Amino acid sequence: MSTESASEYSRKNPFPATLTVNRILTAEGSNKDTRHLEISLEGSGVTYEVGDSLGVFPSNDPELVEAILANQGFSGEEQVPDPVGDIISLRQALTEKYILSEPAKQILKALPEKDESAEFLTDLLDPGEKGKLADYLWGRDVLDILEEFTAARFTPEEFVKVLRKLQPRLYSIASSQRVVGESVHLTLAVVRYQPKGSRHLHKGVCSTFLAERADGAGKVPVFSHTAKHFRVPENTDQATIMVGPGTGIAPFRAMLQERKATGAKGKNWLFFGEQQAASDFFYKDEFESYQAEGVLNTFTTAFSRDQPEKIYVQHRMLENGADFYDWLENGASFYVCGDAARMAKDVDTAIHQIVEKFGGKTEEQAREYVDALKKEKRYLKDVY
Ligand SMILES: Cc1cc2nc3c(=O)[nH]c(=O)nc-3n(C[C@H](O)[C@H](O)[C@H](O)COP(=O)(O)OP(=O)(O)OC[C@H]3O[C@@H](n4cnc5c(N)ncnc54)[C@H](O)[C@@H]3O)c2cc1C
Ligand SMILES: NC(=O)c1ccc[n+]([C@@H]2O[C@H](COP(=O)([O-])OP(=O)(O)OC[C@H]3O[C@@H](n4cnc5c(N)ncnc54)[C@H](OP(=O)(O)O)[C@@H]3O)[C@@H](O)[C@H]2O)c1
Description:
The protein has helices spanning 62-72, 90-97, 105-114, 120-124, 130-137, 142-148, 156-161, 177-180, 205-213, 250-261, 277-280, 284-293, 313-319, 321-329, 343-359, 363-375, and strands spanning 15-24, 34-40, 53-56, 79-81, 87-89, 169-172, 183-189, 192-193, 202-203, 220-225, 240-243, 268-274, 298-303, 333-338, 379-383. With 384 residues, it is an alpha/beta fold. It has 3 domains: 15-58 and 168-225, Translation factors (Elongation Factor Tu (Ef-tu), domain 3), CATH 2.40.30; 62-161, CATH 1.20.990.10; 240-383, 3-Layer(aba) Sandwich (Rossmann fold), CATH 3.40.50. Flavin-adenine dinucleotide binds at residues 53, 101, 138-139, 169-172, 187-189, 191, 193, 195, 204-207, 247, 250, 382, 384. NADP nicotinamide-adenine-dinucleotide phosphate binds next to strand 12, helix 13 and helix 15.
């Protein structure tokens, strides 16, 4: 758990937790499979604070493991070293210890020696060809490249040497421990996609592990990952503006639980965005109850695909720019969580535009204003 915690469990020694709730949040007609998960921490002593993430060590999909074993003519019982040198069966190594999704550079280096049709990979590994290498790897996993270079045969030991160590994934915690006790809630987007040119469905390792394969006592190795940079305001009178499209909603569910439990007097304004209100309005009843109780003062939604033109959270921020600026002027802290690649950048642009337009500032002054928010730790991000 968190580094300050007294628990014996940590990233190095994860707690074998039990998944107790696995509920689909998306309804029929959705393009997504997003889940509400609850994981029991009973007896672990693992603690977390609102804003922290949960680390999860996944296992690979057994179907993918069996397909790779069959491709190479392995039984799975062969003994091989794991990444720390312990000797285990190849099946266990491929299931629990090594990455089977993104092929490592080592396998690309090894393939031309085993199949001459793989010679072009040597050129792709040139440091000047990073873009071409990324294009080649996009949507290809280890099984895809074994199926592409049919002459390539590895020994079991050679094979694990060209794989990298499986890493844990982080998930923003969607609960306050003050409210849920020895439990932790997550909001999980399940990753599944069918790349052109691949013969099999690709499944995100950890998201499908949690959604499809984690049932059973003690099956989910977890640890708490402290996020000191992403905390509810210490001053409970301070207002918050929270922007959390998609699974970015997770820490704000936790913050609202916490603000209610502590009787915080500060106002709360939540922006949520997803594709369609009918199928993707996660935690609708909970948020509407918070509104009715006065815990959530303003609740603004942006359903991007409910009309011909896209409407995103930043469009709603701009539409409500006068109030938004007013909240900032009155000391609100601004939080954003979710997609780092596009959403968080566009939301950042929007906040600059709001300060310029509604604060009557130049571009330069708006930049200084937003920089000051960051320095005062009133502009906090948890993006991925
Ligand atoms: C601090 C933090 C908090 C997070 N919080 C959450 C959260 O609350 N909820 C949540 O669901 N996730 C969250 N994530 C993301 C999460 O950690 C995982 O990255 C996510 O679940 C995917 O992991 P996976 O193992 O299922 O997928 P992986 O096996 O890692 O596969 C994902 C990879 O697949 C590839 N890919 C995906 N789609 C396609 C496609 N269509 N075509 C080709 N390639 C594709 C991409 O390369 C992508 O990186 C968070 C991440 C961080 C760092
Ligand atoms: N690493 C991975 O494989 C993986 C897996 C799952 C999720 N993710 C990432 O996790 C984050 C959350 O995913 P999610 O499925 O929960 O939600 P998401 O993809 O972020 O979508 C949530 C909402 O945000 C909208 N959106 C798209 N572009 C936007 C932009 N530039 N600005 C503001 N809103 C925008 C979407 O609209 P439209 O869809 O209509 O455009 C949708 O309405 C994203 O980073 C996603 O890429 C990564």
